[in-house]
Amino acid sequence: MIKAVTGTKDILPEDITRWKYLEQRVEKIMQSFGFREIRTPVFEETALFARGIGEATDIVSKEMYTFNDKGGTSLTLKPEMTASVVRAYIEHSLGAKQPLNKLYYISPMFRQERPQAGRLRQFHQFGAESLGGTSPSLDAEMIIIAYDILSSFDLKNLTVKINSLGVPESRNNYKNILKEFLQDKVNGLTEESRKRFQTNILRIFDSKEEPDQLIMKDAPLLIDKLDQESKDHFEQVRALLDIAGIPYEIDAKLVRGLDYYTKTTFEIVSGSVGSQNALCGGGRYDLLIEQLGGKPAPGVGFAAGIERILLACENENTLMVPQEKPDIYIIRIDKELNREVFDVALNLRRKGLAVEFDYLDRSVKAQMREANKVNAGYVIFIGGDEYRNNEFVFKNMLKGTQEIFKLNEINEIHHKLKEEANASEKT
Ligand code: HAM
Fold first, then answer.
1. 129 C-beta closer than 6 A to ligand 1
2. Does residue 294's CB lie within 6 angstroms of at least one atom of ligand 1?
3. Which phi and psi (to 5°) does residue 82 adopt?
């Protein structure tokens, strides 16, 4: 039997209501902060990610789904959206159309990582990018949007971590200081960190291995060596987070796994999901647009993992979204009334109601069981004595009450539903 590829997941109808609810919440909050949606292709030229995210990062060096198309062009399934959004921004001269572009997205991403709880090979992110502004308000708003969305799902176990990686000059100076500190300790590091010592020294802070952590706990910190501009920017972001009432902690070891960051970086982690605990991450990238060939412009953004958020919700028993249910289930009492039932259902559906009936020739009892199972709001019975009297029975499943109407009123029954909905809203 052919199964879904390792690290990919089907989203079944019973899961969809939560996904849609989450997506609608994201859209609403993004729009209230003035963001507009952008959609980019699922694959891009490999060079975009190699240059944008950085050759030495795990994403580019180990995790990308890369293939040659028939013309021999190297393509890659997008592992993240920032590079793609920046590519689109440059390609369509969005910066010339308006000085500040605030864009959001919801999209699948692809990374060939070792699958585990909360870590997939095809996963979904929602995220936002502000292109064109240096204001600390934009950094703060990214953190606030992410936090507001997560808290709107009643997630409790959240920690907001923020840090500043400074500008390249102060970061390069700091890298030399770190190199000096580690010079005589390299042999004590794990193999992976010894590699990072050569290629991407800051990422040694990310290691969860004990020998690395033991050495890194005394390492000098970038945040203590920041340039004045980055320091001021960071102070302002913090002040705005205070105004917004966002609880945060400064994590001087938060380096993030992508190379494009300058100044602010942040993550929101959850205590409810195990080791893959970052629900979202982001930061400022003031040089990326220029690096990818655009007119120099600053940017800041974040992305959140939808599967991880849903896992946190599941573990915290939140986001209990009711399943979708039909307005009406039509029960066919007499077998020969198939066409009548078909016709009534069609008419009511065309009026916008969600209507179901039996296609499997089931008994009246089984149809009733089904109506209960799918949680139909109302049941219409077609057949029996009532039908012979040109009438039908209409049952309110919630109240358990029923009324009899003339058959010629059946296609207008949606008015009745509306009346009852209005009445129950008033009480
Ligand atoms: P990232 O930290 O690589 O950042 O990913 C953001 C979020 O995507 C993570 O916090 C996590 O929730 C989710 N995620 C990442 N990898 C996986 C995976 N294999 N399985 C499930 N979920 C995953 C970025 O992607 C940046 N583009 C964020 C950004 C936007 N920075 C600036 N703008």
1. yes
2. no
3. -60, -45
* Ligand 1 proximity of 139 Cβ (cutoff 6 Å): no
Token pair recorded at residue 214: 């033991």
Q: Which helix or strand (DSSP H or E) is residue 128 part of?
A: strand 122-131
Residue 307 Cβ < 6 Å to ligand 1? yes
Each residue's pLDDT tens digit, 109-143: 999 999 999 999 999 999 999 999 999 999 999 99
Number of domains in the chain: 3
Residue type, 425: E
Q: Give the residue whose CA is nearest to atom 13 of ligand 1.
A: 305
Indicate whether 232 and 213 sit together in one domain.
Answer: no
Residues 192 and 287 in one domain: no
Q: What local confidence, expressed as pLDDT, does residue 412 receive?
A: 86
Atom of ligand 1 nearest to the CA of 285: 32
In this structure, the answer to whether residues 28 and 105 fall within a common structural domain is yes
Pocket of ligand 1, candidates 63, 308, 309, 313: which has the most ligand atoms within 8 Å of its Cβ, to mutate? 308
Please report, for the domain that includes residue 350, its CATH number.
3.40.50.800
* pLDDT beneath 50: ranges in the chain: none
CA of 244 to the centre of ligand 1 (A): 24
- Residue 4 in any domain: the answer is no
Answer whether 289's CB lies under 8 Å from 131's CB: yes
CA distance 280 to 302: 7
Burial class for 79, CB neighbours closer than 10 Å (0-12, 13-18, 19+): buried
Nearest protein CA to atom 18 of ligand 1, as residue = 119
Domain that holds residue 175: 169-226
Say if ligand 1 is within 6 A of residue 60 CB: no
- Single-letter amino acid code for the residue at 341: V
Pair (341, 387) in one structural domain = yes
Write down which residue in 272, 296, 316 finishes a domain: 316
State whether the beta carbon of 131 lies less than 6 angstroms from ligand 1: no
**Is 117 among the domain residues?**
yes
